[in-house]
Structure formats: C-alpha cells, structure tokens
Design goal:
Blueprint lengths: L5 E7 L9 H9 L3 H9 L3 E3 L2 E2 L11 E7 L16 E5 L3 E6 L16 H7 L24 E7 L2 H12 L4 E9 L6 E5 L2 E3 L7 E3 L7 E9 L3 E8 L6 H8 L14 H6 L7 E9 L6 E5 L4 H13 L1
Parallel strand pairs: 7-14
Antiparallel strand pairs: 1-4, 2-3, 2-4, 5-6, 6-7, 8-13, 8-14, 9-12, 10-11, 12-13, 14-15
Helix pairs in contact: 1-2
Organism: Parafrankia soli
EC number: 5.4.99.-
GO molecular function: RNA binding; rRNA pseudouridine synthase activity
C-alpha cells in the first residue's frame, strides 16, 4: 500500500475498549468490518505504542495507535473511449442496443480499467438517460466483461424506468448460447438454485442456500464428443448466473476457468474466455409497447471453437 493510497491516523485507544482484540478495536474505532481491520493488522499497517502487533493481541486503554487506513475510493467516472468492434444494432429516441464485444464492461467499476459500453457510447456522441448512479446512467442490465452479445441502454428517462421495471418483473426475454463441457442429463431442463457471492473466492459467485432466487432454462441444440451447445433462457438476471448454474451441474461453460472448466480443452479450441453469448434480447418498446427483438450472431472466436468441436466429433 503506497503512501498516496493511505490515510494515516494516530490516536489513543479509548478506555472503553481496554482489553479487546486489536482487530476488534480497529474495527470499532474506524467503522471498518472485522475482516478489513484484520487485513490491515496482518499487512503491518497498524502499530501499538510504536510496535507492530498481531490481530489477536489485546489493547490497553490509552495505548497509542498508529493506523494507515486505505484512502477513500475515487469516484467512478465515465471516460469517453471508442471501442473497436462495438456495433449498434438499434438506435432511436428511447433506446440504443449494442452488440458488445469481449473485454468490454457495461459500465465503470472498482478495479476495472478497461473499456466500457457507456464510455464507448459517450465517445460516439450518444446521449443516455441520466437516471442511476453517475457511472451507470442508462444501464438497465449488464453482460459480463467476458460475455459478448446484445445489450440495451436507455436513452430517455421513460425508457430507463420502464425497462428497469421490465427486467425486474421478468418481462424481458433473454436468450443465450453456451457451449458447456460434457452432456447435460437431462438434455433439456431447468436449474432453480439461489445465487450469491462465493463464500471463499472474492469476485466469484456460487449456489448458496440463502442466496437470491435464480432460474435458468437450458436446451441442448447440438452435442459434440466433449461438449454440448446449449440454448439458454434466463428468468432472473443474477451476476454470472449461467456460469454458476452450469458449473453447479458439473458442466461449466467451456473456457470458463474461473468456474472449473478444463484449460486443456479451452486451449485446444483456441478459447481465452468462456463460451457464452447473449444471442437474443426481446421486450416491449418503452415508447409504445410494441414487441421488439434484437439478435447477435456468434463472434468469430466462439464460431471457430464450435467449428473445431464439429471437426473433432
């Protein structure tokens, strides 16, 4: 942690905290989680009376604490940045629908420094809805950085309100294509399993008993020797939903190394990301309720992987 990224604090331990663990005292005094406080101690960012101590050491009232707190995160901002390969599928006064390439996030997020859909639209001169937080304005749903395909952005406030409601009420049809390892049994089915953050792996998600309701329908379109091409329809829209549910079935998306896919198979197919593509998006247009749908063909890297699977079968 560099000095530019820290906020140094020096102060005595209040008498009311006499005798408690160091990590608990740090958490209480600075409003941190116990985990974050323990991480600071373990990282050597805390001293007591000039001595680095362990997280479980007890503190005394009046002892002098010196703590290097992480600096407050900088506000996320949208940087207008052109994105090669991002195509406009549809544009009108209320919505713009894009075909998102791989490696592009929906909007700025902590820790991500790559291109975004919102930044690309800003660079191209598109006006989007001002609803939502500054970095997410106009975003009514998202695709993972490594997932390609059709994504809608609201341009008018009316569209933002109506589309957010439509996604929340499951009135939007979201169809994906996925190549998964092996052959699901049954070949057509539904996964109804709650999802939330992975209890041990930051940044990933998992099926957990107290997670958010999540429903995925799948149907096998084509079977290969080592994998299957699925048509997948989502009822809900949880982060990493298809990836998590397929992994839970022991059939992770090919190339999805984060969720247990075989790296040898991915290499053989020339894949550097998960085989997952948002192929179709359909909803009632926010202007007049007319049903509209938008489709995206498989991008070159995914199409090449399927060709290799067919050749090998």
């Amino acid at each position: 942690m560099s000095t530019a990224d820290t906020d140094r604090r020096s102060l005595p331990v209040p008498d009311g905290l006499d005798g408690i663990r160091l990590d608990a005292a740090i958490a209480r005094m600075f409003g941190l989680s116990r985990t974050a406080a323990a991480a600071l101690v373990d990282d050597g960012q805390v001293s007591v009376d000039g001595q680095v101590r362990g997280r479980s050491d007890r503190v005394s009232g009046g002892a002098w604490l010196d703590v290097a707190l992480p600096a407050p995160p900088r506000p996320l901002t949208v940087e207008p940045t052109p994105v090669a390969g991002l195509r406009i599928l549809h544009d009108d006064d209320d919505i713009v629908v894009v075909d998102k390439p791989v490696g592009v996030a929906a909007h700025p997020a902590p820790g991500f420094t790559g291109p975004t859909v919102i930044g690309a639209l800003a660079a191209a001169g598109y006006r989007v809805s001002t609803s939502g937080s500054a970095e997410r304005q106009g975003v009514v749903h998202r695709l993972d950085v490594g997932t390609t395909g059709a994504m809608a952005v609201a341009k008018s406030e009316r569209a933002y309100t109506l589309l957010k409601r439509a996604f929340r009420e499951r009135e939007v049809e979201k169809e994906y294509r996925a190549v998964v390892q092996g052959h699901p049994d049954p070949l057509r089915g539904t996964v109804d399993a709650p999802i939330d953050r992975h209890p041990r792996r930051p940044g990933l998600f998992a099926v957990v008993a107290d997670g958010k309701p999540s429903v995925t329908h799948y149907d096998t379109e084509e079977a290969f020797r080592a994998a299957s091409l699925l048509s997948v329809r989502l009822e809900t829209g949880r982060t990493h939903q298809i990836r998590v549910h397929m992994a839970a079935l022991r059939h992770p998306c090919v190339g999805d190394l984060s969720y247990g896919a075989d790296p040898t198979l991915a290499q053989r197919l020339g894949l550097t990301r998960q085989w997952l593509h948002a192929a179709r998006l359909a909803f009632a247009h926010p202007a007049d309720g007319t049903w509209v749908e938008f489709t995206s063909p498989d991008p070159d890297d995914l199409a090449e992987a399927v060709k290799r699977l067919r050749d090998q079968t």
